[in-house]
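Researcher: Please translate sequence to structure tokens.
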Amino acid sequence: MNIQIAVSLLLTALFLVAAAYNSLIFIRARRGDPTPSVIPILGGIFGAVGLWHWPYHDLSVWAWAPLLLDYGCAHYVAAGTIQEVRRAWRFRESNCFARLVGGSSEKNVEIRLYKGGRMLLDETFRNPQKFGSFSSSGKWTASDSGSGYILSIWGAAISIEERAGQWAIEHESGWFRKELRLSPMILAAVTEKGLARRMA
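Model: Translation complete:
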């Protein structure tokens, strides 16, 4: 019991220090003064665990409060929640107008193009020990020819063009790992609801 009290008090004290520090940073930032970074997440977590484990009073029902009271925690939780909601809305199924797939002896590739110039790229490698799966979002624009797209993802630029119902990689540069290159793979359209320039 004494150890539980000590741990609970220690965690609560760490929460109070982090919350006070982050509050000062918030006030200074509102004034326009230069500020260091906040202590992210930890203060709220320490406070929540400290209240959850307090043995004498039923403080566990208030364990959520430090997560909202600590600016360093609430700020990141709110920003993360907003980001995930935006991502879910942006990449919803009804927004996808083209899904291109391809494969080689080393990996399978899927590219999904969404309205508003957004895209998702998934690469699943057959030998995960050599290179794990790669998934990331990027942007697309219509190519000058009007029959293809230019994809921008993680600093890489990929130009794809449609030829007789298939999609060929015309140009590709900028990958930080050669394993991520798509060429000379040919992509096939599984779903296509019109050209990008009509859907943007």
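Researcher: Any highlights?
Model: The beta strands are 96-103, 107-114, 118-125, 134-142, 148-153, 156-163, 166-173, 186-192.
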